[in-house]
Amino acid sequence: MGCRTKRERSQLIRFRYPDADKGRGAWVCKGSKECFLKAISRKGFERTLKVAVPREVLANWSSHFEDTEEVTSASSLY
Ligand SMILES: [Zn+2]
Description:
By secondary structure, the protein is α+β, with helices and mostly antiparallel strands. The chain has helices at residues 33-41, 44-49, 55-62; strands spanning 12-15, 26-29. The protein has one domain. Helix content is 29%, strand content 10%. It has a two-stranded antiparallel sheet with strand order 1-2. It binds zinc ion. Zinc ion (ZN) binds at residues 2-3, 5, 28-29, 32, 35.
């Protein structure tokens, strides 16, 4: 979603937001904070999830790119 590269799902990380439609998720390259930030700057999350995502939530999601690349799914946050 951020860099618009086509990748296998195993190389992507999926973010879900409770207010968004069920099953709707935003995909970003796994381990790529750059991709994540690009997605934010393009309002990709809002467009993909069809809801406004609060800053706190985005900040929370961004923490997934700092410590480890072993994170497989951010949906466990919810
Ligand atoms: Zn990407």
